[in-house]
Design goal:
Elements (H helix, E strand, L loop, with lengths): L3 H21 L12 H7 L7 H35 L4 H5 L2 H16 L16 H10 L1 H4 L6 H19 L6 H18 L2
């Protein structure tokens, strides 16, 4: 009989193997830790824009940071978990044709605009937040070790997606919405932290 410590060790070790496999396949990460915010603001001519709009946008930039990091951490969790559990062909075996086709269309649309940077080279980077939850739901046996209730997870994704849509379309969230978003992100990260 396997102990809980052995299962955790095995899970972590297999995750490390999945990381190494992704790196061997040429996974690229893009980080802008060396960003000079003042230089970017100058390049964008921020000072020419309405000060009130700029301040609201700056406040929502912090919210955007949390939402984007959440979304990308979910993508990474899905990729690692399914790579570890299913293998390199997980995208075809574990993702519905509808979701794969939507991601493929986004990849193709972005490829047509060669003069502009792309969001990535992995199809999961072109998968929207509700579809990420769809992937998790359709593969519950692989995510059950750290998601105790899939309806609970779907509720979190719904709230985060709703907030995401407001800020992605230049809206401003109320403080109560920001607090709710923070609570859900804390709950999610506490539950699924690996």
């Amino acid at each position: 009989m396997t102990s809980e410590a052995d299962r955790v060790y095995t899970f972590v070790y297999r995750g490390q193997l999945a990381e190494e496999a992704l790196d061997r396949e040429g996974r690229q990460t893009y980080r802008r830790a060396d960003v000079d915010h003042e230089q970017i603001a100058e390049m964008l001519t921020i000072e020419a824009l309405d000060e009130g709009h700029v301040e609201n946008a700056r406040a929502m930039a912090t919210v955007y940071t949390a939402v984007a990091a959440f979304e990308n951490s979910v993508r990474e969790m899905i990729s690692k978990t399914l790579m570890e559990s299913v293998g390199e062909n997980w995208w075809v075996e574990c993702v519905s044709e509808r979701v794969r086709n939507q991601a493929k269309k986004r990849v193709e649309d972005e490829a047509k605009v060669r003069w502009h940077g792309q969001r990535g080279d992995d199809p999961i980077q072109f998968t929207m937040l509700p579809n990420l939850m769809n992937i998790i739901r359709n593969n519950q046996e692989h995510f059950a070790p750290f998601i105790h209730d899939f309806e609970w997870a779907a509720g979190i994704f719904d709230v985060i997606d709703r907030s995401r849509n407001v800020i992605m379309h230049s809206g401003t969230l109320h403080n109560r919405d920001v607090a709710r978003l923070g609570m859900y992100i804390r709950d999610w990260t506490s539950q699924v932290a690996t």
